[in-house]
Design a protein that fits this description.
Shape: globular
Oligomer: single chain
Radius of gyration: 19 Å
Distance between the termini: 8 Å
Strand content: 25-35%
Number of helices: 9
Structural class: alpha+beta
Order of helices and strands: EEEEHEHHHEEEHHHHEEHEE
Length: about 300
């Protein structure tokens, strides 16, 4: 059985972690953009095997996947006969740079597993399995819920899909683009394992959310997220410079990805070329991501 799925990536512009004992209530307040670039998965299952084995490839390189292993434990029926599961992922955005690739990967794989094995799970049940896998691997908090919420999103209540609440800032998906690029990663696991840093981020993130909700416009959202990036200590000098040039070129606003040494700019269609040119002063052209805002969410491409 062969299944292809796709999940959009989710750029995080700010966040405030919420970690409690119940994993379904863990997550984050925050906000950002679900985009038309993301993770495409080809999953193949064959049952002529002596024992169940897993293989995972990311952009044609074989790597171990904590998320795949967790999803198999969470989703596969205990009486399923031994099988060989091969997952080939094409990740269209930088990894570990605040593009939500782990959550997108979890959703795309979970959707493929459910379809391939005819698990009779609802969209929400599949998304919750992806949330749990992302959380257990310490690769994300509220990413899955954000992707399911879609669009220009604001997470106003943390938690797994169906528990967390995601609001949106209305915006025309035809008239605006996201331009993004990364210098390099900031490992999410390292940040999520530092209690003192998490407490600082939580306070700043909730403060940012309050300021955004007082004036939920694209301009104020980007302004407050940039302040969050500066106050949290994540913003580096070269990120700051790239943000300034993107804004001068006509972006509605620009800020740093959470968490990564990367930036994203919300750009009107008429200023797309000038903002793109500003990005080329700091990043190679093949490293720049141009995307629309996605509201469709994860989909099955073929089965």
């Amino acid at each position: 059985m062969n299944v292809e799925t796709f999940s959009p990536a989710a750029i995080s512009s700010f966040f405030a972690p919420h970690i409690v004992k119940d994993p379904l209530k863990c997550g984050a307040w925050g906000g950002g953009f679900t985009i038309s670039r993301g993770v495409q998965v080809n999953l193949e299952i064959s049952f002529n095997a002596e024992k169940t084995t897993l293989e995972n490839y990311i952009n044609n390189v074989k790597v171990d996947s904590c998320i795949l292993g967790k999803l198999v434990k969470l989703m596969l029926p205990p009486n399923l006969e031994p099988c060989r599961i091969v997952v080939k992922q094409k990740i269209q955005v930088p990894i570990e740079c605040g593009f939500g690739t782990s959550g997108a990967s979890a959703l795309a794989i979970a959707l493929a597993l459910a379809k391939a094995l005819k698990l009779n799970m609802t969209y929400l049940q599949i998304a919750r399995a992806a949330h749990l896998a992302d959380l257990k691997c310490k690769t994300g908090l509220g990413t899955v819920t954000g992707i399911i919420g879609g669009g220009f999103r604001i997470a106003v209540k943390p938690g797994a899909p169906g528990i967390g609440i995601v609001d949106r800032i209305p915006i025309s998906t035809d008239d605006y683009y996201i331009i993004a690029a990364a210098y390099g990663p900031i490992p999410t696991k390292k940040v999520l394992s530092n209690p003192a840093k998490l407490q600082q981020i939580k306070k700043l993130g909730k403060e940012t959310l309050r300021h955004i909700m007082k004036e939920p416009t694209p301009e104020n959202f980007m302004k407050q997220c940039k302040k969050f990036a500066i106050k949290s200590g994540f913003m580096t000098g070269r990120v700051k410079k790239a943000i300034q040039e993107a804004e001068k070129a006509g972006a509605v606003g620009a800020t740093q990805n959470m968490i990564g040494e990367a930036i994203h700019a919300l750009t009107p269609k008429e200023n797309l070329e000038s903002v793109y040119n500003a990005f080329t002063k700091h990043f190679r052209r093949d490293k720049i991501v141009i995307a629309k805002i996605d509201i469709k969410g994860p989909i099955i491409l073929s089965a």
